[in-house]
Design brief:
- The structure holds two protein chains of two kinds.
- Chain A is an all-alpha fold.
- Chain A is built from 23 helices and three strands.
- In chain A, strands 2-3 form a two-stranded antiparallel sheet.
- In chain A, strand 2 and strand 3 form a beta hairpin.
- The two termini of chain A are 13 Å apart.
- In chain B, the strands form four sheets. In chain B, strands 3-2-1-4-5-6 form a six-stranded parallel sheet, sandwiched between helices. Chain B has a six-stranded parallel sheet with strand order 14-13-12-15-16-17, sandwiched between helices. In chain B, strands 7-8-11-9-10 form a five-stranded antiparallel sheet.
- In chain B, strand 1, helix 1 and strand 2 form a beta-alpha-beta unit.
- The longest helix of chain B is centred in the N-terminal third of the chain and has 14 residues.
- Chain B starts with a strand and ends with a helix.
- At the A-B interface, strand 1 of A face helix 10 and strand 14 of B.
Chain lengths: 510, 447
């Protein structure tokens, strides 16, 4: 049997080991915080030792790993799984609250790295969890945002060959844009842009605090929210998410969420002096158009009949600024798959909630940190439908689907159809699985909640509606459902195909 | 001036014919039959040999040559011939190419000396430009821009239904900035006077501002006024077809292009965002009917083969297309095409020869258009202080010019100046004039 295998899994696992080993370095930051706050130093030292041990152990499988195309898929998929498992270790060791339980820890860790932002923490707050552990939770999102593998390609020389393939398997959206001849340099450029914008956001948030416009936005909070905005993650150390902060903070976060959902290659071009790329990029224009249109729609709905009786926020019906702010914030947050909430949208009228439900499927731009289907795929699907309508009347017409000035390859168009359809099929099947599993354990779950929970985890959005609403958590689900959602988040982050291909026999044989 | 022409095909021969009167012409060709034919038909020196070889060029007298015109059917041969000539001496080199990429490379080089070529003409592009000009003015048989487009020369055929048939020139001339340059009737060229009567079947040559030419076109053929919504169909995705579509797109038009080959159709569709490319055989009558090709304002046939172009043009005409333009590769077929019902036949080689001839004229000649197989020319000339036209009213100056000379338009600092009897031409002005062939030598000397 093993002779038939055509995939060098040892090489893949060995490189996964290298990445896991380096993950221990990332734990230095929460360790430093733990030392500063005098709480939980041993948790992170132990976690680092475990990470290094596991990483080193995996590395022993192959001392000179050689990655081919197939090994690349395996390595990328396993990296995310391994990193999420090792990332769960601090939660378990710390033993604080509900996330200490292993299944919950894995869920929280996977939700972090995949920038989903769905939580199983029973109560969020520093009374229950140490600041260091909370920061680890925020930090996993930031690491996962631009991509663990992109980061690995940027810093690990052994990944320079075949790096494009690895990044392609991981990066959101169809295809990868090489910005520089060397892939490692492209990876570094993307990470630099990511790092730079994150730093700017942190500085501005803290600046608001210093200016007296955001009393609760302390330095710790600024760093935490910088980490989770730019990753389109959505974890917040505040139990009430961004509702806990002033209107100024909410307004400030909106443009950064928009930036996080933008193709980072555009920032790279802009930094090279080509600012006009934003206006010229078809996807970016469509993205901004979608955000503006749906924000306007929700604003009108909220202004006309929004209620907010159960929340700390005052009523929004008839209040222009509030209707505008919450509508834009929520639409941007869900389209970019950030998953922050400026208020509990579970309290909104049904029409507004349904608009938000549709937003769960839109997604950010290709090459951004956002999840879900991605705006560029919808654009291509819409354009192909328009093409079909035209060719029905003119059967001989030859019409390439154009994106900007470029005509798309028909194979790429087919790939986009396939992905979009597959995404929707998986969504429906998974919703059924979640619904049935809940019924099996006697959990009271309505269909819309099940669907929104699946859409939110598969699309790496985070909050959904009803029991998984922005102020609630995924804690009530049975463990089996939680593990199934871990799987959904995993395949959602890698855009399904790189993981599904591993499940086919042809992948493993000739 | 000593001119070496490499390639004695249609383009080379045509250029040689128009230069032979005024210059020493040496023609080089590899084909001995062509060389023999030229030796007896034209007063030129014809040499058999390869124009890319140094020894052949030496034999042709490249050291004494002022100009090399490489006009074979092969792009690379032409480029190499120019490059080779430059290694010996510094003659002015002109290369004819089909591939637009070479033209782009040449235009891109800052000193425009890429490949050792001083002037480059692109056959396919010129033909497409000609087609677009003709479509832009549907009633015209021929249109040429002068002075960077400020002045236009156009040739119209007067049909029986035309409102100007049977009018005198004085009655027909209702446009300020338009000059009636000539009337071609059968084989005669008439220089019109006020009382000259325009008959049906005449071809009228006018020179003026584009707006007045457009206005005159409306006068001559009111039903054929072009607009942005013009329904244009191009049949055949050849290079000429592609460039025609591209140039029409540049004018804000949305043509349709029919190409049979699936791969080529896809390629064209990718390159032409504002053109509807259709993959079909243009002789499929059912397809043509379904796509309403018969209702098109103009159908352009740009297939690779003359017979097919004729066939689709006539088919389109029969279906009701208002106007047909066909690319005709064989020079002799042009008049035949126009006889059997194709409205305009465009011969890429003729267009190329015209363009090259422009560069071989006297140094200050800026532009030239050949009328009716060389029976006359429309010239653009930048006048200097020594010209007989300068410094006195046109009425007096023109009296000194030979018969067969008509001053059509003047531009000064890029502005159109209406030529009247008392207008005074200044040095540096550009004049656009119609000149009969017989008067050419005399006119050149006086200007």
């Amino acid at each position: 049997m093993s002779e038939k295998l055509r995939v060098d899994w040892r090489a893949s696992c060995s490189l996964v080991g290298t990445v896991v080993k380096w993950l221990s370095v990332a734990m230095a930051f929460p360790l430093a915080l733990a030392a500063y706050y005098g709480d939980g130093v041993t948790t992170f030292i132990a976690s680092m030792v475990i990470a290094v041990a596991i990483g080193w152990g995996l590395e022993q499988l192959d001392d000179d790993p050689d990655l081919g195309a197939r090994e690349g898929f395996l390595m990328v998929a396993l990296t995310w799984l391994a990193v999420s498992l090792v990332g769960a270790v601090p939660y378990v060791i710390a033993g604080e609250g509900t996330v200490a339980q292993p299944v919950n820890a894995i869920f929280e860790s996977m939700s972090g790295f995949t920038t989903t932002g769905a939580t199983v923490m029973g109560s969020i707050g520093f009374e229950r969890h140490s600041r260091a552990l909370m920061m680890w939770r925020q930090q996993t999102q930031w690491l996962g945002g631009m991509g663990i593998v992109v980061l690995a390609v940027a810093i690990l020389p052994e990944l320079s060959v075949g790096g494009a393939q690895l990044m392609d398997a991981e990066a959101p959206g169809p295809g990868i844009q090489k910005l520089t001849p060397r892939i490692a340099e492209t990876a570094r450029a993307l990470w630099k842009a990511y790092l730079g914008i994150t730093a700017v956001e942190m500085a501005l948030l803290y600046g608001l605090h210093l200016a007296g416009l955001a009393p609760d936005m302390t330095l710790y909070q600024s760093v935490a929210h910088g980490f989770t905005t730019m990753a389109t993650g959505g974890f917040s150390p505040a139990a009430r998410s961004i509702e806990a902060f002033s209107a100024a903070v909410q307004w400030l976060i909106i443009p950064f969420m928009v930036a996080a959902g933008t193709n980072f290659a555009l920032f790279w071009h802009a930094l090279n002096g080509e600012v006009e790329v934003f206006g010229e990029d078809t996807e970016f224009r469509f993205y901004v158009g979608v955000l503006a249109t749906f924000s306007a729609l929700v604003t009108v709905l909220l202004f006309a009949g929004g209620t907010a009786e159960q929340t700390a926020v005052g009523p929004i019906g008839g209040e222009v600024e509030k209707a505008l702010r919450h509508a834009i914030f929520q639409v941007v947050s869900l389209v970019t798959t950030t998953g922050y909430a400026s208020m509990d949208f579970n309290t909104w009228g049904t029409p507004a909630q349904y608009v938000l439900f549709v937003m769960l499927f839109v997604g950010g731009s290709a090459g951004s940190t956002g999840g879900a289907v991605k705006i560029v795929r919808w654009l291509v699907v819409l354009k192909s439908i328009k093409r079909e309508l035209f060719t029905t009347v003119h059967p001989e017409a030859v019409r390439p689907v154009r994106l900007g000035g470029r005509a798309l390859d028909e194979q790429a168009v087919r790939g986009i159809y396939a992905f979009t359809l597959l995404y929707l099929v998986i969504f429906f099947v998974a919703a059924l699985v979640v619904y049935v599993d809940a019924a099996r354990t006697g959990m009271d779950l309505i269909a819309l909640d099940a669907m929104s929970a699946v859409a939110a985890t598969l699309g790496n959005v985070g909050p959904g509606f009803g029991i998984v609403g922005p102020m609630n958590s995924y804690l009530p689900f049975p463990s089996t459902t939680k593990l199934f959602m871990v799987f959904l988040m995993w395949i959602g982050r890698l855009e399904i195909l790189p993981v599904l291909v591993l499940l086919t026999p042809t992948y493993w044989r000739s | 001036m000593r001119v070496i022409i490499v390639g004695a095909g249609e383009v080379g021969s045509s250029i040689a014919a128009s230069l032979a009167d005024l210059h020493e012409v040496v023609v080089v060709d590899t084909d001995s039959e062509r060389v023999d034919a030229l030796t007896y038909s034209l007063d030129v020196l014809a040499i058999q040999g390869d124009g890319t070889s140094l020894s052949t060029l030496r034999q042709a007298g490249v050291e004494q040559a002022d100009m090399i015109i490489a006009s074979t059917d092969d792009d690379e041969t032409n480029l190499v011939a120019c490059g080779t000539a430059k290694t010996v001496d510094d003659p002015f080199t002109i290369a004819r190419v089909k591939n637009v990429d070479y033209l782009e490379t040449w235009q891109h080089a800052e000193d425009q000396r890429a490949f050792g070529v001083d002037f480059m003409v692109c056959t396919n592009l010129l033909a497409a430009q000609d087609i677009v000009r003709v479509i832009g003015l549907p009633a015209a048989r021929d249109v040429d821009p002068f002075a960077g487009g400020i002045v236009q020369m156009a040739e119209f055929e007067v049909s029986e239904e035309s409102p100007i048939a049977d009018l005198t020139v004085r009655d027909a001339d209702r446009f300020d900035s338009l000059t009636f340059a000539a009337i071609l009737r059968d084989d005669d060229v008439t220089i019109p006077r006020g009382e000259t009567r325009i008959a049906a079947g005449d071809k009228v040559i006018v020179i003026g501002s584009p707006e007045s030419v457009q206005g005159f076109a409306r006068e001559v053929a009111p039903t054929e006024t072009p607009s942005q919504n013009e329904d244009l169909v191009i049949i055949g995705g050849s290079e000429i077809g592609y460039h025609t579509a591209r140039l029409l797109e540049e004018r804000g038009l949305h043509p349709r292009l029919i190409e049979r080959d699936a791969e080529r159709a896809r390629e064209l569709a990718e390159q032409l965002p504002n053109t509807v490319v259709m993959e079909s055989d243009a002789t499929d009558a059912e397809f043509l009917a379904r796509e309403h090709v018969g209702e098109a304002d103009a159908v352009v046939a740009t297939l690779e083969n003359d017979e097919k172009n004729l066939l689709v043009s006539i088919l389109a005409k029969q279906l009701g297309a208002r106007r047909t333009v066909a690319v005709v590769e064989t020079t002799e077929y042009v008049s035949l095409f126009e006889t059997v019902g194709v409205d305009v036949g465009i011969n890429p080689r003729e267009v190329t020869a015209e363009e090259i001839t422009r560069f071989t004229r006297e140094l200050h000649t800026e532009n030239v258009a050949l009328i009716e197989n060389d029976r006359a020319e429309v010239l653009e000339i930048e006048v200097d202080g020594e010209s007989v036209l300068v410094g006195r009213p046109i009425r007096e100056a023109v009296a000194d010019m030979p018969e067969g000379f008509v001053l059509g338009a003047i531009t000064r600092d890029g502005e159109f100046v209406v030529p009247r009897g008392d207008t005074v031409v200044e040095p540096g002005d550009h004049v656009v004039a119609f000149v009969e062939r017989g008067a050419l030598t005399d006119v050149s000397a006086k200007l």
